[in-house]
Amino acid sequence: MKRLAIVALALLMLLTVIVTPAAANTQDTDFEDVTVYDWFFSAVRFVSTNGIMNGTSSTTFAPHANFSRAMVVTTLFRIYHDRAANQTDSRETPFNDVQDGDWFAPYVSWAAEHGIVTGHGDHFAPNDNVDRQQFATMLFRFADTMTDMDTSVRQGAAWAGFADRNQIQSWATDALMWANYHGFITGRTTTTIVPTGNASRAEAATILMRFLGSSMTQEEAMRAGIEYSEIVRLFPGADVRAMFEQELMRLINEIRSSYGLAPLIRHSALSTIARGRADEMIRHNSMSHVSPTTGLAHTAHANNQGLNVFYAGENAGWGHGTPQDMVTAWMESPVHRDGILVGAEGNRLTVEWATMPYAGVGFASGDTHEWGTAWTFWIMTAPR
Asked: Which of 284-314 are b and which e, b meaning 16 or more Cβ less than 10 Å from the residue's Cβ?
């Protein structure tokens, strides 16, 4: 998915600015090979921020490299203990290919002790690539023995459509079916689950993010940096869109409070306009303040939609995955920041704009827009 375009709040409809791609620092990772344009960006950010996966170096994550069996047990240990292994952790294992001095020894020892791995006889093959059915099996055993997660085996809607189900080993069938039902491991296509395919580091990050996200509330997942599409996957039927809009408004007023400014009042009619603008930007693949439906912008568009205001203006943005990402990007752009901090000393908006107490926010997501998501933040003077 392409990301991170933002359009500035116009100053009395005289200025329209498109900034693309302007990623905020909090949206970056430390890895040169992971960009905000990558489908796995949010997953890599999630696992690295939470200490679950490290990079292959200080500047690389190697997202397309294969994930090893040792790496799987390492991540599960870190999830369970919320730390890396240390000298107090046992390094004894039943496997003759895991030595005390190996970096992965305490992780394999812990996983074997708790039945998460059984190895291949007296071998664990720590450096072998982990395939998708092995990953599912380790994850399933971890969930069953180390958590209170639901590990009942159910068949998801997509399962019957996988033509390669007969390639799944009998010892992995329940685990892969469970992982697929919960959305942790999805098909690589609508007709293939690819059980013997190697899991890449990007896939591993995504699987672990989804696994952990399933134990969170919707708000916790959102604030942990999990993006809209993944939260929708984790919480089918939930009104995630309304939650994103509410969080966007909360963050804006939280920032205003930190500057000693009064909160903006969320106006229902203006919020309807803001959401409608986000919808039409997705629907028409639009990146402009001018509505593709009415041909109008800002005050004229708001009044065309039934309001009667002296001034109205819009911040817009595309491609940002979470409300925090969007607000951070706006705050790093001086013109957008003035829109959020309207009324602050030194704000470049005019005195008339500083009397604008009302706001509305909108969010939309869809594949018809090249950036995938659209966000809007509107402010206006009191209706006349």
From this structure: eebbebebebeebbbbebbbebebebebbbb
